[in-house]
Design the sequence.
């Protein structure tokens, strides 16, 4: 009798900062055959170092890849926050050099709200706060960020994540990863994590790497 074919599970771990990112990815994982372990982290008390400590706590988790999704807006808040961000980048770089589970640092610059606005076909690059309140009709940005159905809201009618991917493709980024994905074996390898502070004043994101690796 032949041995039953082994079914490989595509398991990923995601560390995310706020409610918006959490609800967005939580909806994604419920509607696709991808196993995603979500780890929301409150950064109000410790900033980027909170991320680093949480990731270290979970360093033994067995998964194909880890995604650490952060906003870049804190970097300019203080030298301490910038130092924490650089420590986070260095930690991911070291892990990737050691061929551990790939650590994808995903940086939305200045924040996830900008990436969210890029889902809308009518968004033309104006200030995200005014677009969310004036064009989308929310009383505040906080109301927008707390929507549990944020994924459905951003991916409705002609709007959607494909608009986001098209708009950030090939654009200068504060940070990006070069990597290889072997889909048949579910094997992912990060070759290099590139940080370019010359692009700090440019809005952008490498969130496309997340969609690409999980094969969305």
Sequence:
């Amino acid at each position: 009798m032949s041995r039953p074919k082994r079914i490989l599970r595509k398991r990923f771990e995601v560390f995310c900062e706020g409610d918006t990112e959490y609800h967005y990815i939580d909806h994604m994982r419920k509607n696709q055959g991808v196993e995603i372990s979500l780890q929301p982290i409150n950064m109000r008390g410790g900033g980027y170092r909170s991320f680093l400590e949480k990731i270290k706590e979970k360093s033994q988790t067995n998964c194909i890849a880890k995604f650490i999704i952060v906003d870049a807006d804190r970097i300019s808040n203080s030298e301490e926050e910038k130092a924490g961000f650089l420590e986070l980048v260095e930690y991911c770089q070291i892990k990737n050099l050691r061929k551990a589970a790939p650590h994808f640092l995903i940086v939305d610059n200045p924040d996830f709200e900008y990436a969210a606005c890029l889902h809308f076909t009518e968004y033309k690059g104006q200030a995200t706060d005014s677009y969310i309140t004036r064009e989308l009709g929310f009383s505040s940005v906080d109301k927008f960020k707390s929507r549990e159905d944020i994924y459905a809201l951003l991916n409705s009618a002609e709007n959607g994540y494909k608009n986001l991917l098209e708009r950030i493709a090939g654009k200068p980024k504060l940070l990006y990863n070069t990597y290889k994905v072997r889909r048949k074996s579910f094997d992912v390898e990060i070759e290099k994590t590139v940080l370019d502070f010359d692009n700090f004043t440019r809005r952008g994101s490498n969130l496309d790497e997340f969609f690409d690796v999980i094969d969305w």
Remarks:
- The chain has a mean pLDDT of 89.
- The beta strands are 11-16, 35-40, 65-71, 103-109, 175-182, 187-195, 204-205.
- The chain has nine helices and seven strands.
